[in-house]
## 1
Amino acid sequence: MEYKNYPETHEIELQLNGTSQKLTISPWTTLLDALREYFQLTGTKKGCDHGQCGACTVLVDGKAINSCLSLAMMQQGKKITTVEGLAQGENLHPVQQAFIEHDAFQCGYCTPGQICSTVGLLNMKKGNTPEEIRDLMSGNICRCGAYANIFKAVEEMVQKEVSGTP
Amino acid sequence: MNNFSLTQVDSAEEAVKTARLSTENNRYIAGGTNLIDLMKYRVENPDHLLDINRLNFSEISSLPDNGLRLGATVTNADTAYHQEVQKNYPLLAKAILSGASTQLRNMATDGGNLMQRTRCYYFYDTATPCNKREPGSGCSALEGFNRIHAILGASEKCIATHPSDMCVALAALDATVQVTGESGSRSIPILEFHRLPGDHPEKDTNLEPGELITAIDLPEKGFSQHFEYLKVRDRPSYAFALVSVAAALEIDGSTIKDIRVSLGGVAHKPWRLPEVEQQFIDQQATPQTFEAFAEKLIAGAKGYGDNDFKIKLAKKSIVRALLTALEK
Amino acid sequence: MKVLNNITGVATTRVDGRKKVTGTAPYTAEFNPANLVHGYIVNSTISTGTITKIDTTKALDVAGVREVFTHENAPLSVKINADYSDPMAPPGSPFRPLYNDQILYNGQPIAMVVADTFETARYAAGLIEVAYNTSGKSTTNIKDNLDRAFTDDDLPDPPKPRGNAKKAYQESEIKIEAAYLQPREYHNPMEPFATVAQWDADEERFLIYDKIQGVASSQGYIAGIFNMEKEKVRVLSEFVGGGFGSGLRPQYQLFFAAMAAKVLNLPVKVVMTRKQMFSFGHRPACFQEFKLSTDKNGKLTSIQHKAYGETSQFEKYTETIVDWSGLMYACENVELNYKLVPLDVYTPNDMRAPGGTTGMYGLECAMDELAVKAGIDPLELRLINYAEKDQNEGKPFSSKELKACYSRAAEKFGWKNRKAEPRSHKEGHTLIGYGMATGVWEALQQKASAKAIFTAEGHLTVSAATADIGTGTYTVMAQIAAETVGLPLEHVTFKLGDSTLPKSPIEGGSWTVSSVGSAVKMVCVSLREKIYARAQETHPELFAESMIEDARFEKGELSIRDGRAVSFMEILNADERKSIETSVNSEPAENRDNYSCYTHSCVMVEVHVDEDLGMIRVPRVVNAIAGGKIINPKTAESQILGGVTWGIGMAIEEEGMMDDREGRIMNANLAEYHMPINADVQEIDVIFVEEKDEIVNPLGAKGLGEIGMVGTAAAIANAVYNATGKRIRELPITLDKLL
């Protein structure tokens, strides 16, 4: 394998939580690392860095994706929403509030990903059976084992027909 | 992760041209879910990535012969939830939705799904010999952990399996893969798209270097009445198949008019034997018939120790999937 | 003196909940001081041997790389007179990263690249070329190496034998013999281990953000390695993304970050990859053998329990595995043995319910086998042999409402509907089975300190150097403080995760509420006394003649018997002294030694097994717990839900797959190391039975972090037997074992 000394860099522009942000990075920077290390948006978590845990889940054009498997350069022009972009000022997004009420987390590390996945699920208008909720939420591992309460929070949101977006 | 450059290409011609001009160490990237994963493990070390997301392959459209064309960069999620797919190809929808996670399905593309690489532990670990990753280095799985490995069509060079669910359904549905390359465009029947390992396990598919998948075509016949995708795995979601079965039946009364069964998790490619299927047309759809079918489909199956159980499991899974399809 | 504020015992949402749901709770890797550089660690690919060459030329050639650390250039200062032990180190010689060219286990950290960006460091790490001289003698399989098992003075003795178990076993007509094997399990908290280390060269001090379950652990470790006074090492760990025991001991990224920060005089961040999360302590593989016998009435006549646990070649890690067998059931003839098998692996580490979940898995499966043999209902067998006292120690229990657990669980679960005959309950292709097990865990209390500062603005800050690894420490401590002082919860803040705060035990062993909670209560009682004393000076007209015993502290006011009241703020603002501060050191009460203190549970599960395909689902679990007073039913329930979920993982999914040829773990990722996911968990009912305990600690609370897991795996294994008639004695019970 040939090694190269100097990675090429590009100036990119990302639509992050409603604002346009510029950044000069190399192709090897994932969206996750861009958020955490370059934009200090550390709400999005790195759990496995391989798409196997869901801690890095963000919304791209309203859909939940693993930001760890996405190169930042390839996300230009898309609407990216992280957990920091869900609340309206002091008002929490209903999903955030539901997670608090149902104690749907313990250590809190998987929580931003779980919440983004829930918002994505609401956007898809899915989760009409308990089995479907559990299956669609299975891309987010919670090692603390808060699944029973995560399920309750998501189910309440589905039943109340809460709107997901942004 | 390797140091690489990345360009976005605007046309298939440009993509193919760029790919051809460079070394074979280039890769197309669309969803990236498997490629980036492998690059982080240093299993894949491309010098250059060609982002094909801007290409005009992101639509699902009807074909003149009443079939359906899935653009190569349509996501797995958009495919599975597409109205036409749900209605006419529910087997495909079910297979896709049984794979990966919501997030991965939202990223992964249909073309990329075909290009998924094996989950063999040794392929993923650059510290161990693996003929697929490093031709000639040996196969660590033969005498190592091979619980998730192939029982059919393997070679002494490689006993890896193809990990896709979607491809198993595509195989049952007789899909066609449309590709374009430096010598023009061509259609590859799905059963000829993936390879058995033989002496060259480093080659997963029969694509020529630089060839680009543009679409997957589904024929009109979708078996929307009698179908089943059965996935047997260690965890009820977000786990790869130990054995999976895409089963499709066309039934007249209790007579089999058409039968398609393809298996996942058992071979280097989706395992389907049309010649066996032919033998069962016009037979009665009974558990005994399905058992006989299963025996023939996995005839010659061989275990490597940890995966011996798959032989029995595959048989039972085939019968179960066919009975479920029949009862639908 | 009366406290009327009902704050403890009431389901309370987490005080840190808002931070966690908005992504503003800062975890270790999220601190980015100016001029931060990033470390990326390289691990060995052989298990035993030596490094013959390590070529870092190409890595150093990459733009942005600051340094590559290997055993060849690690500073001498961390080799000479350095003490690598940490407060939780077992007997032996702790692993010393970069100490020499020796490889002790596969996955050993052998180098670290430091670069300006994470990506550069990761890239350059891939350019390091390592040549080894492998010994070719990797020994990592416990079952194949039982002949190497040993015991010595470093190992705690299991309880002494009582009666004559061998003889009683021989003479009994109803008896079973069974052996159980369980694999290595890996903690895998969602937050990877991470350290951000800053060195102050002028002051010769460290400021370290570390993922750890107790800042004292990291502080002691670093002070020992760098030969410094502890006070010169400040460790912060305010939010911990899960621990489960993995953070009881500092992990190697701490060494690397601190060493590099000092050498380079730059802040260094080192975050482990998920793969590296499989390269240190884990739940040890364990092999257990049981012989149990009863008389014809189901009365146990003998218990023999022998356990083999794995350890590394350099430390002797032990767990309490066999003691439970002498504790749980009334039996006059008991013989317990425990041995270690040294293997070429990293030293195992405590992992949720260490020892307890292992020993009770074996014991409770063996009891189930005995119940079948004796033709007695498994629950009935436990009741027949119910232990009214701790026979290992000859002591009474401080409290033991286990019978209530049995009856409440049985009632809720519908145990009476269980069909004793295996395979007799079937719906379609689904075999349905019921299983049960008993759970037990020590109710420990450690020494702890706490400090309280009550300001003239009316805000109370209580602090201790404990941790909140998701357990709810922030919330529960604030509840105890608010209730004790008589303040609304919003007026109380609890601070933790800072080594400058009052000393506290590491968060583990389910002892935080018991230990730190007792200190918090004590410091708040002390604060109350000081408020009262101040009030006697500032408001003599009210308090000069009264007694504190007659006073009420509630809703931010101090009142006396006739109903007259004055607010705390008025008292504090009455003169220039303003705020009140107080500190305490608490320790277990002496009379505690006269009792055995344990948390108990009964877990009942229903499993569904596909008769052809072997896939197991766990649709229903009931877990009834006797855990003393429940301070926060909401977070308490979450602890049990988590424990049960872990039990599901242990029973049917989790297995570290070590390729014994080179001692290498082959499923070091979250795709192939299966941990429970949302779809694994369906209905879980948690019942807390009423249990009063005035001995265990001043709170009467016993701790719940581990108990939810103990017994769950056994109950599932027993239910699988009931469903299928197959007794699988090797975890996890994957579908291939049922075909």
## 2
Amino acid sequence: MLRHSRWQRLNLSAERRAELALGAVSVAVLAFVVAMLVTVFVKAWPSFAHNGYIKWFFPGGDVDQQIKAIVNSPPDPAHYVYHLRAWPLLWDTALTTGIAVVLGLVLSVLSAIFIVEFAPQSMKRILEPVVRLLAAVPSVIFGLIGILLVVPWINQHLISQGRKLSVSYVVQLNGAGLLVASLILMVMIVPIMVAITVNALSAVPNSWTEGSAALGVNRWRTMWRVSVRTARPAIIAGAVLATARALGEAIMLALVGGSRSFPVNLLDGRTALFEPVRPLAATIITYKDNLSVVPLSQTLYAMAAVVLVSTAALSLAAWSVKQPLKRYGIRT
Amino acid sequence: MIHTPMGPAAPSPRPLPSPTASPSRPARQSTGHGQDSISSWPLMDRVGYLLCWAAGLLLCALAAGIVLVMFVKGISYLRPGLLLEHPSASQSQSGSGGFLDPIEGTLLLTAIGIALAAPIGVAVAVWLSEYRRPAALAQAVESGIEMIAGAPSVVLAFFGLLIFARPSLAFLSQTSAGGAVYGRSFFAAGAMMSLLALPLVVSATREGLAQIPAHMREASYALGKTRATTIRRVLLPSIRPSIASGTTLGMGRIIGDTAIVVILLGASLHLEGAGGTPGLSTLRGTGSTLTSYVFENSPAGEGNAPEKAYAAAFVLLMMVLALNMVVTRLSSGKPRWLAGLTGPMLWRWMPWRD
């Protein structure tokens, strides 16, 4: 009986080997993602566990002081301090992201309609590089312009002394805060929404819009009632992608959010716009130098896990947005 | 010519242009043909029209503003010497040297990241587009790539810290006297940076492969070529521009990222080597890039030298703009507006296409 080598017994042709090699690379990438999810959670677990799981997300006390206590916890693992109530960070994250996405949605849909329908050829040619540029500017440059130009300007021109005094017993207003953070965040996420919306609007079949125009409907209403409505799943998907990006933005927010964690108090009315914010991702960056302290690193990993889960949940949400389309027999 | 009255039953005098007739044009024809004048529209519609103009002009103004500010500030603070001097720790802005090391760091990190991302990305894309067996696994890989694309770079950096601080990977970074693995090095940062570029390379390659007409594959099979040979000799060479544009976009992402650098590269002032071997020591050592230099020299960082930060940010922006131009050149004539910008699996969101 002939003795075959292992590879010959498997009887793999070059063709099959190529497929297996490519498949192996793909599976390795997948395994990497799964490993990322698992290890980040394993590392983060003590922080959740010591705070009574759900209580980790509750309000209670000043986050900065709690983190300071964690940093200064004794070196003995049995006496590590873990106490954290992360609600101010979560609230600031939700607030900045929410404002940025809502404003960005309006701006991006309007400018996408402009690009697809109303812009003269010359404007159209300018706008593509413009959007590409806005998408390509690194977040640290946005942050730098924010902290060196926008923040001082707001401090001088928009915040009156009276307004500063009115909240001086809880927080110092210096211009860095919710308003700057969410406006710059909006500029950062608008390009992706514009790009998706423009592609979606221009993919609407011509016969649909021409049918509308043939009925005497003007161009604005045709865009608004036919094209935008058809493109709605794509617009929502763009908003969801943009939300995920906004949740993960750390550097710019660490620069222009103000230097302390403070739950923005909406009851302060317009003053709330100038109160400092520090979302989750920015907090991680702020305390990056103390990573060697074990309980702090576990706390920061817990924050990273929350960010990671939110972005993953958003992908899932985006996936479910398109499900209704299947009912109409539209292939996805 | 007889004017056909408009109505649903009126036969169209000439065939309507089909939406798929000219796939190379991004924008479809406007529906109005300039016949209805805007002044005759209802008030709300006119308001909407004006808002559209305002939104478009606002985008232009923002881009122009950013570029203008960076040009003015950058040119007024940038001296040629800054590009060639090593940085040094100093209290005063005049004594803190230039940013040669951050520039080197940026280039090195980009090279490492792309060297990893390009081959892996092309391999994954080819497998996803040409083989995808078993289908369930392909779906899972697809969503995995989507997750990487959505994962914030802070989280990627933290995960990288977990990986590279393992004792078994100590040879990729430095080990302290106590035996603890530092986990911060060019290797570590570059590997994580490649994840930023990976989804962009994958989506660009897949898009390129999807545009190759079936008869090209069939012609190759008819000549007796296997599928592997077809991919290597026919498909990949013909989508080289797509791969190049994906790679360039990925480079832009890597150059612009700060979080991975400040967490995973150590953000030390100089390129500090570790170990004896010349080239390898740099890769094992820590360093900084232009982004981390800007971050550390901003008022929020430790250096607080705004003039240096402006100058470095200007250089950074120039690099990004140059890459942008390359992408524009490569993707001109593409059917999609801003091809490549819009994320990996975008076409799924437009189910009414084809």
